[in-house]
């Protein structure tokens, strides 16, 4: 029987409910990111719990936490958060992008990285017993470095060994097709892959090519008007639905900054998609059937092992 691995244990897919497939609750980014902007750090367990309470009260039931090993993942903090909220939390093994890799990751062999991911997926992180529910890998802007290719191939090996799904970081939505090439050549089932941040590169043709290959198209920018208005995202969603790819859409907010979260006195917060973006989708003619597919059915299918 298919199950989904949460921080509290495996659950059946029908217990997932309304799901955000890419968010951040707690993270301690590497120095290079903090030099760029300390707003990236999310250090407060209490504020993460507060934000999850807003999410749950609005109707959210599962959150997929995207903080990878190279971005300051803290599984014990996530355990504490999970113990104090009814929200299902799914966290990851793997790595974000080469810019954040430590020397240990850069020097490690592909098989060593694969073994680390497999061990976490099957036995748990360290002595914690906490198991990730998916694998993360990624690349930089308009390029996949040799180190990033190595990590992607290691992620593929971990997927082939465990069946765990993969979420791919793209920088500003670039290199998604090239990442799929690497994964497909390694034998990965592309129906278990999500290419993330694609709405940062709002090119519908490009998104359709990814969906045609069986992978999920990940959008995670609703409410971020600094990139462009939500009208652009609405048209992208309509375009994928019109092309018959409504079953290949995963949409979240990627609220990975203090200034994005209500609990840190920022916004738009975890409530935004549920309280503002989805009502707009309905108003613009996207039916509840598609909304249920995007936030309930698709995440459950992607995460099931």
Structure in words:
The protein is an alpha/beta fold. The chain has a single domain, classed as TIM Barrel. Helices cover 41% and strands 13% of the residues. The strands form three sheets. The chain has a six-stranded parallel beta sheet with strand order 6-7-8-9-10-11. Strands 3-4-5 form a three-stranded parallel beta sheet. Helix 2 packs across helix 3 and helix 5 runs parallel beside helix 6. The longest helix is centred in the middle third of the chain and has 17 residues. The radius of gyration is 18 Å and the shape is globular.
Which helices and strands occur, and which strands form pairs?
Layout: E1 4-6, E2 9-11, E3 19-23, H1 31-36, H2 45-58, E4 62-65, H3 75-83, E5 88-90, E6 92-94, H4 103-107, H5 110-123, E7 134-138, H6 146-162, E8 166-169, H7 176-185, E9 193-195, H8 204-212, E10 216-219, H9 230-242, E11 249-251, H10 272-283, H11 288-303
Parallel strand pairs: 3-4, 4-5, 6-7, 7-8, 8-9, 9-10, 10-11
Antiparallel strand pairs: 1-2
Helix pairs in contact: 2-3, 5-6
